[in-house]
Structures are given as structure tokens and as C-alpha cells.
Amino acid sequence: MYETIAPFEVSHSPICYHPVVMPQGPLVSIVTPSLNMARFLPQTIESVLSQDYPEIEYIVMDGGSTDGTFELLKRYGERLRYVSQPDGGAADAINRGFQSSRGSILAWLNADDTYTPGAVSAAVKKFMDTPAAEVIYGEASWTDPEARVIGPYPIRPFDRELLLRECYICQPACFFRRAAFERVGGLDATLQIVFDYDLWIRLSEHYQFFQIDRQLANSRMHSASKTLGSRAQMYQESFQIFKRHSGYVPFRWIHSYCCYMLDKRDQFYEPLEPSFSKYLLSLPVGCWHNRGKALRFAREWYSEMSWAGLIRRLKGASARPV
Fold this sequence. Notes:
It is built from 13 helices and nine strands. It is α/β, with parallel strands linked by helices. The chain folds into two domains: 28-220, Spore Coat Polysaccharide Biosynthesis Protein SpsA, Chain A; 248-315, no CATH class. Strands 1, 2, 3, 4, 5, 6, 7, 8 and 9 form a nine-stranded mixed beta sheet that branches. Strand 6 (135-143) and strand 7 form a beta hairpin. Helix 11 (276-289) packs antiparallel against helix 12. 39% of the residues are buried.
């Protein structure tokens, strides 16, 4: 464990800074949480340090990795700031990173994701051109472990009602103002996987999101990522935030969960595989998770069984995940 790390150590106590002159635009603070991601971390770091926007504060929060991450970070010298010590998970690390930062615009980039060239400049321009914007997001691509593009992330125009059913915002392609982040209380550090989705929902209660029509980031999909490697926990946490924010878990999420529990497919590289038995199982599971709204769920469940849907499930046709 490294307790004192140059050039600073993050703590929960207030940190005082001298005023910073930012003639070319607002300071953007970017935090990268990392734990044993030395395989991918250099590409992530370089994607930040190579941005053409001059006013970037970059902080890497390492959770005490044992894979050479600490030695890797030291090689960057003063080009970034870093801390290497145990934390309470990624959300806790990001919160502490933001607490020690100075920027009026915030973003975090996981240690296996990357920005596209000019991403930060594009985000800042949108904020400056749209004073009412508190949150902006752009397009993104899914990439494989070797950074080869798999396909586009399914981004959609902002719609709060849809956001309560589907996470269509790609986390690394999202930037937000510090004031908005602090108003909603930051990230929920009790969540280990879906804390980004929870943040989008809470921000959407108060703010309109603005979309940028250009690619800002790449989201790397690999077996060690939490989304694929901890699939059951991802569903459990998702159900928790659905119940918290809308009091209802949609059919698509219940059905995908039932599919996973029966076949353990990762539902990305091994796409979701519907079947009639999984569809039947989703009824009692959905009614149990929606105990106060079981009739609503039963109606939604029934509406999904069109003739085409029945044929698809009987054949076990594949489909992309929610």
C-alpha cells in the first residue's frame, strides 16, 4: 500500500488551491479509477494526454494495484496526478478524485476506455455554446480487448422517460458541470457497477441533457470488465435503482436477467438467447420484483408475446442485450 504519493494525496478534508488562470476556457477535471488494469491503462492515459484542449487536470485513482500500475504511473511524472491506495470501489475513488480536483467541468474515464481525438474540445465547445447545458453526451463505439471497433454504442436522443427504462448514455462519452454533480450528491458509492446509470437518472430529475453528434469515446468490452464479468451483480444493482427511482423494473430487464440465470451467457459476445421457458420464468420473477405493480408487469409481459415473438422464442433466436 502506498500512502503518500507525489504530487498529492487525496483525502476527504478540504484542499486549498491558489487561483488558476484559464484564458482559453474552463478547466476540465478528468478522473480515472483503476485496479489492476495495467494492460489497458497506458492507452487510456494517452487518450487523455493527447487531447488538443489545453486546460485539462488529469487524476488517476489507483486502488492499490499489484500488477505494475504504480510503476507505470510514476513514468508519467507531472503530466498527471495520481494516488495509489485502497478504496471503497470505483465510485468511491471517482468521488474522492473529484473532491480533490478544481475543474468546473467533470468527467471520468475508466482504465480500459479511451477518448477519441478532440473529444474534450468538442464537449467544452458544447458547454460554451449552450449555457443552459449541465450535462452533455456524445456518440461512442464498443471495442474489443485489442481496441478493434465492434460497433456503435446504442446512443439515443435525450428522453427522461426512456432513460428510466434503458441506459442509452455511454459513460465515457459524458461530461457534466461540477455544480450539477454536487447538487445531486455525487456518485452513490454503495453501488459497484451501475453507479453511472444511477447518476444519469438523478441528474435528469433537475437538468436537460444535450447530445453531441460526434464520437467522443470508446468503451472496451472484455471479460474482466464489471459489466460482463459481474453480470448477476449488474442486474441486482439495476433492479435496485429502478425500484428506487420509478418503483418498477421493466420487462426487458427481468427477461434478460432470467436468460442469464438459466444459461450464464454474457449477453454481448454470447448474445442473449430467448426461449419459451425463459419467457415463462420472467412472469413470476417480474411479479415478485414488482410486487406493488404486479398487474402492470403482467400486462407488459403479455404484450410482449406477439406471434413473431412466440416464433422467435420457440426457435431460440439471438438478440443483442438491453
